[in-house]
Write a structure and sequence with these properties.
Layout: E1 12-16, H1 21-32, E2 36-41, H2 44-56, E3 65-69, H3 75-87, E4 94-97
């Protein structure tokens, strides 16, 4: 009934806490629906594994998945996240907070 109400194909979703639990489950679902996804978490080793798994689900040629290792409880780390998006000229359509 609601499956087509939330169109994410081609949109950019940023997910905090995206390396495990609900955040990772949402990332998998969004990627399978055609969204571009950037996951944020503190542990880079977990993030690299998660992104590798998410990239296997990418179906569109111009679709991308990436990660940012950052502790969002620290201002300097938040600034690092901002700089990532500015440098790549990315503008998130959705922010999902699971951290």
């Amino acid at each position: 009934m609601f499956s087509n109400k939330f169109v994410v194909e081609g949109k950019l979703a940023v997910i905090t806490g995206g390396s495990q639990g609900l955040g990772f489950a949402l990332a998998k679902k969004l990627v399978s629906k055609g969204a571009n996804v950037v996951i944020i978490s503190r542990t880079e080793s977990k993030l690299t594994k998660c992104v590798a798994e998410l990239k296997k689900r990418v179906e569109k040629e111009n679709q991308f998945v990436d990660y940012i290792a950052a502790d969002l409880s620290k201002y300097a780390e938040c600034e690092k996240v901002r700089e990532y998006f500015v440098a790549k000229q990315l503008y998130p359509d959705h922010l999902i907070c699971c951290a």
